[in-house]
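Entry type: protein chain
Record version: 2
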Amino acid sequence: MIGICGGYQMLGRRIIDPNRLESEEGVATGLGLLPVVTRFSSQKQTHQASGWVSGDHGLLAGAKALPFEGYEIHM
């Protein structure tokens, strides 16, 4: 099983958004597979990111040195 970013948060117990920046709900129940509770802060920042894959095993087998682009969200 793998969970990255929002997927990781959903594997936890709860996601708390006290300022309701991402949802009107304020609290969402996760799957409870990890002993994790995520609490969003009041500010959201996004940043462009790029780099090269450094791993070469498991899910990244054969991907070493391939370029990637994306963005980071910090909240």
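Comment: The radius of gyration is 15 Å.
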